[in-house]
Design brief:
Elements lengths: L5 H25 L6 H4 L3 H26 L7 H8 L1 H5 L14 H25 L6 H32 L3 H7 L4 H7 L1 H8 L2
The structure holds protoporphyrin IX containing FE.
């Protein structure tokens, strides 16, 4: 059965590519210990040039993702109960947790946090890109916030990739081919399966 349309998968993988490009070029400029990464992107100048453009692309793509998914990512009462008991999910004891719809509450939280991080990265990134036009206070705020937002977003994506590849077999295939089996939907998103079966 279909889980992700071609358009959803295209937007998702564009967000992944632009995020990784922006993250690795950013890390190369952030610490001299990570400067070796710049060699992968064609040297220091190329890295400095590419980073803001990858960031702009990431923010634009997340804007498109936001438009298509925000309505489905609203947290309801069952999601809040799911979040309060999410330690059970982490320990593979999903029985007793409210049934998840198309997205579980953890996936919804990732969506909202990444959307917020993208906004913060875009706003502070533009300040750092054109510092000569910006007041000093704004520059100081951007210097502090930009790496903080980036580290938060990178930590969440590491968790997201781990969940999608190692913890939930079949999820990665869903994001590549667009389809899942009924058994997968019953195990991970039973409410979504029921909704899909309604005439
Ligand atoms: C970098 C490599 C990435 C990999 C390998 C990856 C993998 C996946 C997989 C397998 C799914 C399907 C999960 C399911 O249906 O159960 C998914 C969904 C999703 N991805 Fe990614 N992803 C990556 C990057 C990103 C980035 C950069 C973002 C946004 C900032 C993102 C946002 C989402 C969202 C919002 C969903 C739907 C809800 C969810 O499953 O969390 N992903 N991803």
């Amino acid at each position: 059965m279909n889980r992700y349309s071609f358009a959803e998968r295209t937007v998702h993988w564009l967000s992944a590519l632009s995020f990784l490009y922006a993250a690795f070029t950013g890390l190369a400029m952030w610490s001299h210990k990570l400067y070796w990464l710049a060699a992968v992107f064609g040297g220091g100048n190329a890295t400095r040039f590419a980073h803001p453009w990858a960031g702009i692309l990431f923010a634009l793509v997340l804007g498109v993702m936001f438009r298509s998914w925000a309505g489905q990512m609203r947290l309801d009462r069952e999601d809040r109960e799911w979040l309060l008991n999410s330690h059970r999910y982490a320990m593979n004891q999903e029985e007793g947790l409210p049934d998840a719809g198309r997205f579980n509450a953890g996936q919804k939280m990732l969506f909202w946090f990444q959307s917020l991080a993208a906004l913060a990265l875009l706003a502070t990134g533009v300040v750092l890109w054109f510092p000569e036009w910006m007041p000093r206070t704004l520059r100081l705020i951007a210097i502090a916030l930009h790496p903080l937002a980036a580290i938060g977003a990178i930590a969440l994506i590491i968790l997201h990739v781990y969940m999608g590849i190692a913890v939930v077999p079949g999820a990665f295939k869903a994001m590549v081919h667009g389809t899942v089996t009924q058994g997968w939907a019953r195990a991970h998103h039973p409410k979504w399966l029921k909704e899909k079966r309604l005439p």
